[in-house]
Write a structure and sequence with these properties.
- The protein has 13 helices and six strands.
- The chain is α+β, with helices and mostly antiparallel strands and about 280 residues long.
- The protein has a four-stranded mixed sheet, with helices on both faces. Strands 3-5 form a two-stranded antiparallel sheet.
- Helix 1 runs antiparallel to helix 4 and helix 4 packs across helix 12.
- The longest helix is centred in the N-terminal third of the chain and has 20 residues.
- The termini are far apart.
């Protein structure tokens, strides 16, 4: 049986050897394909007929065959993702022992109940959150982007973008709970003082990794040429989600703010926002 290795997009040495060898062997193709794509796009901006009937990219068929072949290799392994959040001691233990669960009304209910049991929140604060229209709207998830999913940053570099992640670390409960309450004087102080910032490092099967691209291999191949091509498509920097709960075996590490690795990953001490 093939060992399902944890693979990080920014750590080439973690890539399956066969994938890595094939990708770099075809680096010339990986450069030629996007360069020709951009040439055709520029031509379309200048010539109307080329916009309506763009010429074929002579490298496309070979590139797609390579990407499909490499996608099969990746499917045997697991991709590493970083889940940014704020957790209590009880929640850290629960994730280590039972894994990470998708966002649901039941999960939020459990977190609120546990916060009451542990006296992190008062009954009045719990009721305030449970009756919040903001919370109900988030959990109803009209736009289909949160409920029923767990979100991850596959890129360690993304953890250093203060504007993108600081809110996840600053307030407890996840986006569904803190959304609309961060500046609410009735509850903001309570959810900001609860728990501690954590990064849950996970490894989920490639087949369970949702993203907005045809293949994950395309992202990895973009990384191969990122030293040559500025802003390769698709982007190497992306968000990823799972629609399935992660088992305890999928949790590689929980890195809390007291761990020096948290600062190494985020550089939060130089941020303008206090998340502690």
């Amino acid at each position: 049986m093939t060992t399902k290795l944890p693979v990080e997009i920014e750590d080439i040495q973690s890539w399956p050897e066969e994938f890595r060898d094939e990708a770099f062997k075809h680096k010339t193709l990986l450069i030629s394909y996007p360069q020709e794509y951009r040439r055709i796009s520029r031509l379309g901006e200048e010539v109307l007929i080329a916009r309506v009937y763009p010429p074929l990219n002579e490298f496309e068929e070979e590139y797609r065959a390579l990407a499909d072949r490499l996608e099969t290799i990746l499917s045997e392994h697991r991709i590493v993702g970083y889940h940014c959040t704020r957790l209590t001691v009880r929640e850290i233990k629960a994730i280590k022992n039972g894994g990470l669960n998708i966002l649901s009304k039941e999960l939020v209910q459990q977190r609120l109940d546990d916060a009451l049991i542990d006296r992190h929140l008062t009954e009045e604060e719990i009721l305030y959150l449970k009756n919040s229209d903001n919370l109900k709207e988030c959990l109803d998830d009209r736009h289909g982007g949160r409920t029923g999913r767990i979100w991850f940053c596959p890129n360690r570099l993304s953890l250093q973008y203060e504007s993108g992640v600081y809110r996840l670390f600053r307030s407890w409960g996840g986006e569904a709970v803190y959304w609309g309450h961060e500046r609410d004087d009735n509850i903001a102080h309570a959810i900001r003082g609860l728990g501690k910032p954590c990064i849950v490092k996970c490894a989920l099967p490639f087949c369970d990794a949702g993203h907005f691209c045809e293949r994950l291999s395309d992202r990895f191949l973009s990384y191969v040429v990122s030293d040559v091509i500025e802003y390769p498509e698709p982007s190497v920097d992306f968000d990823m989600y799972s629609k399935k709960n992660l088992a305890a075996a999928d949790i590689l590490e929980i890195i809390d703010i007291s761990n020096p690795e948290f600062e190494q990953l985020t550089g939060y001490k130089s941020w303008t926002t206090n998340i502690e």
